[in-house]
Amino acid sequence: MIRRLLIVNRGEIALRVVRAARELGMCSIVAHSEADADSLAVQRADETVCIGPPQATKSYLNIETILQAAKDVAADAVHPGYGFLSESAEFARAVKAAGMMFVGPEAAIIERMGDKAMARQTAIEAEVPVVPGSPRAVNDLDEALNVAESVGFPRLIKAAAGGGGRGIRVAENAAALCEQLPMAQTEARTAFGDDRVYLERFIEHARHIEVQILGDGERAIHLFERECSLQRRRQKVFEECPSPALDDTTRESLCRSAVALAEHVGYFGAGTLEYLYDDITGEFFFIEMNTRIQVEHPITEAVTGVDLVREMLRLARGERLRFAQQDIQRRGWAVEMRINAEDPERGFFPSPGQVQRLVWPSGPGIRIDSGLYEGYRMPPFYDSLVAKLIVWDECRESALIRAGRALDEFILDGFATTAALHRRLVDDAEVRRGVVDTGFLERWLEAKPTPTPSDKEVVS
Amino acid sequence: MSQQDIQAPFPGVFYRRPSPDKPPFVEEGQQVEAGTIIGLIEVMKQFFELRADAAGIITAFQVEDETVVEAGQGITVLEVV
Lengths: 460, 81
Fold this sequence. Notes:
The complex is a heterodimer of chains A (460) and B (81). Chain A is an alpha+beta fold and 460 residues long. Chain A has helices at residues 11-23, 40-44, 63-72, 89-97, 107-114, 116-125, 141-146, 174-192, 248-264, 297-304, 308-316, 396-409, 419-425, 429-433, 440-447; strands at 4-8, 27-32, 47-50, 77-79, 101-102, 155-163, 166-171, 197-201, 206-216, 220-232, 235-241, 268-278, 284-290, 333-340, 342-343, 349-350, 357-359, 366-370, 385-393, 411-413. Chain A has three domains: 4-103, 3-Layer(aba) Sandwich (Rossmann fold), CATH 3.40.50.20; 141-201, Dna Ligase, domain 1 (2-Layer Sandwich); 206-459, ATP-grasp fold, B domain (D-amino Acid Aminotransferase, Chain A, domain 1, 2-Layer Sandwich). The longest helix of chain A has 19 residues, at 174-192. Chain A is globular and about 65 Å long. The A-B interface holds A 54-55, 341-342, 350, 352, 380-384 and B 10-13, 42-46, 66, 68.
């Protein structure tokens, strides 16, 4: 049983968990930093507890302080939300050691699926396709050329010690590989002090498609996929459910592979398996797993009718998975637009400020997940997501039209947001046709810079 | 000689070091050129460099490393030479 749930997060997701907890009759307790004492989640919670100064390292990431707060309020479970400590095995372990439920999988599963190399190995064991690549670091050119045919060309040469897009080169063919490999090794040695490089298939037109799953430790089900190809600097901007790229056969095998992997590790709770989908060949490849609730979960809720956060809490309090796979049906189409406090007209510069006037869109098919209210002063310490506008309709075309209508109703005075960017995106001919890949948005922003009204110049 | 206040252009957290295990960008009393990085300001998980507008000497920091600053708050004083 869970009676007193400590929510260790902020913003819209803290509020989201408060709502689910209250609906299940749990006492919701929001742990907040000094900068979030006036947040909407704090106002809506049954109880609150302050866990320290504004800086996340001193509050939302401070395991010791959080555990003390949990003890002080006599919590019996902890929901980590997303970000912060949600994928910290150390935190999950510490919560359990302190005698509380951690709303998420066991620390060992977080560790196993959070490590890219281990997750890849686990996927191979579960017969889930991964991006074809060299099984280990290649030492020399002969070995690089002899790497299995299945990898094909073009290939990525990736520094073993690299990350976040650094230390990557592309070789179009064998000749280019001969030329690039020694340079990549030298580069890796100078940049990371480690000259080991791996080879991997380079997917030129990749979509980011992910599968939502729920598991109770024995059995797992999928709740179909989301497509999150519209990204800027590897951050998702706009998501939709389902993906416009998949036919029913591919969707079925993709979602089944996710269930196979989840059941292989005995997954518990809500999780998401991320895949790259090759738009040219129609193949999909597992890349990583997120062992927590995700920002874009509401589009899955809109299309399946399942409340994912409430299900997480039910599982955590000891209930078995309440659904069989055939109980999960898709209905219609949903899109999510992330409204960030960033100014698209000034290179997405952060724009914290105070909400002077706020009018949310409403009417059929509209859902807003946000911690904003009139008079709220946004702290500058955390990420810039301030609202999620989720729009459902019977098909993709009408969902995009409805999204445009919703954005037209939305008014926020006080600081710049990315809402205007979304307004232009939902009308874009290529977005309407769904022909996007993970590079689409950056190319689009480059080619179609925001029209800058002359009166904006005084701002900078 | 004139004194210039180097101010925070927006609210955030001010850092004197590129990372916690590195030495500060500049010390008090240090001579700087126009464009020298004085520190970083973090706002909504993005980091921005704070630079000196002119050559001179950094006389004193008005805020500590890793402190919360408001827009327009004085960070340090530059004595322009």
